[in-house]
């Protein structure tokens, strides 16, 4: 352990299942993080859970007994929004995801559809009759209006989840190829 502490300056911790399970902190996790920080180590927290913004994660960390700054949290929602911001993206994001992604996009002033699957925007083409499950409509929105398609964890139910997933995967593959 002494060798590790002497030779490592930065520690990355996953959150779900490593620091806590659901709403219960892992015993000793908070003390370990405090000790590392006291020793002057950089401590960062990473998660692939996009349902919360970094601000929401700070609240959760605090409720579970951790002292964490927003700048120490790296989430997929934040990284996606940061990427679009750094690319100087000016379009609109078609968001299939949760509030965490929407909040991070909002923090950078990036326009997006509503959380979840959503309804068509006012200016959406009239021939896109079923916005929720129409891959061609999503394709049109993405390519014609310079929109990015962002998929994250979605908390809710879909009328036709398998159909939507098939269209989503097909669209993302086609979009990446172009």
UniProtKB/TrEMBL annotation:
<dbReference type="InterPro" id="IPR006357">
    <property type="entry name" value="HAD-SF_hydro_IIA"/>
</dbReference>
<dbReference type="Pfam" id="PF13344">
    <property type="entry name" value="Hydrolase_6"/>
</dbReference>
<dbReference type="GO" id="GO:0016791">
    <property type="term" value="F:phosphatase activity"/>
</dbReference>
<protein>
    <submittedName>
        <fullName>4-nitrophenylphosphatase</fullName>
    </submittedName>
</protein>
<dbReference type="InterPro" id="IPR023214">
    <property type="entry name" value="HAD_sf"/>
</dbReference>
<dbReference type="InterPro" id="IPR036412">
    <property type="entry name" value="HAD-like_sf"/>
</dbReference>
<dbReference type="GO" id="GO:0005737">
    <property type="term" value="C:cytoplasm"/>
</dbReference>
């Amino acid at each position: 352990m002494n060798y590790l502490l002497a030779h490592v300056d930065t520690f990355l911790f996953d959150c779900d299942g490593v620091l806590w399970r659901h709403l219960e902190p892992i015993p000793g996790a908070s003390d370990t993080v405090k000790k590392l920080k006291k020793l002057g180590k950089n401590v960062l927290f990473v998660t692939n859970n996009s349902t919360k913004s970094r601000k929401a994660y700070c609240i959760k960390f605090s409720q579970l007994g951790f002292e964490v700054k927003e700048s120490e949290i790296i989430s997929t929602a934040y990284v996606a929004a940061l990427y679009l911001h750094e690319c100087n993206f000016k379009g609109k994001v078609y968001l299939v995801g949760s509030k965490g992604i929407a909040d991070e996009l909002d923090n950078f002033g990036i326009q997006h559809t509503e959380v979840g699957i959503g309804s068509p925007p006012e200016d959406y083409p009239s021939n896109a009759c079923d916005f929720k499950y129409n891959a061609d409509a999503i394709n049109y929105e993405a390519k014609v209006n310079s929109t990015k398609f962002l998929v994250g964890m979605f908390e809710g139910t879909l009328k036709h989840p398998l159909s939507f997933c098939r269209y989503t995967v097909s669209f993302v593959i086609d979009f990446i190829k172009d």
